[in-house]
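Colleagues,

For the teaching module next term, I've prepared a clean inverse folding example: a structure given as tokens, and then the sequence designed for it. I'd like students to try predicting residues themselves before seeing the answer, so please don't circulate the second half yet.
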């Protein structure tokens, strides 16, 4: 189950740059300590911190154990306060099925949660919510386009489509027969 499938809107415990936390540059989510975290998109691991234990609030610059990933869309994603970090070498290529760590309570954190951040190409945090919304349902089938769009249809939609097609063909055929007799 790719990120953020273990997380739903209901699990969001803190938003991006809220009135209450104007310097909070990510979104906090909680599904329980130890929940496996997956990358939001495929990419390359470019930063990682491990070895922080709970209560060491300054460890990892306050983010505790973390993973940072570069994505081909030019953005970075950041996962903080992890309990554990997967043993992945630098520049390791991950996809949305690669476990990168587990939800935890390391660094400046009160209670297990994932601090999830999206950064632009300059490394500046931007609002992750639009991306998070886009990724919710990421383990559903990707939306097909063009010729293959039919692959994403439900059976009912497919049957309806075929039925309409059949009626159109029938009408055309019927019409051409009339013309022959006409
Ligand atoms: Zn946070």
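(Answer key — instructors only)
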């Amino acid at each position: 189950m790719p990120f953020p499938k273990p997380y739903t809107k209901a699990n969001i415990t803190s938003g991006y740059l809220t009135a209450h936390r104007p310097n909070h540059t990510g979104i906090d989510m909680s599904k329980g300590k130890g929940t496996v975290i997956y990358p939001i998109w495929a990419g390359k691991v470019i930063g990682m911190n491990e070895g922080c234990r709970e209560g060491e609030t300054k460890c990892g610059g306050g983010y505790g154990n973390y993973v940072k990933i570069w994505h081909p869309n030019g953005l970075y994603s950041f996962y903080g306060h992890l309990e554990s970090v997967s043993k992945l070498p630098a520049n390791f290529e991950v996809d949305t099925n690669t476990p990168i760590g587990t939800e935890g309570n390391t660094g400046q954190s009160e209670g297990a949660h994932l601090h999830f951040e999206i950064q632009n190409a300059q490394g500046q945090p931007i609002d992750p919510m639009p991306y998070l919304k886009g990724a919710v349902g990421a383990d559903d089938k990707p939306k097909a386009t063009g010729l293959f769009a039919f692959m994403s249809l439900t059976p009912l939609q497919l049957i309806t489509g075929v039925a309409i097609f059949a009626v159109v063909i029938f009408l055309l055929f019927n019409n051409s027969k009339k013309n022959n007799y006409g």
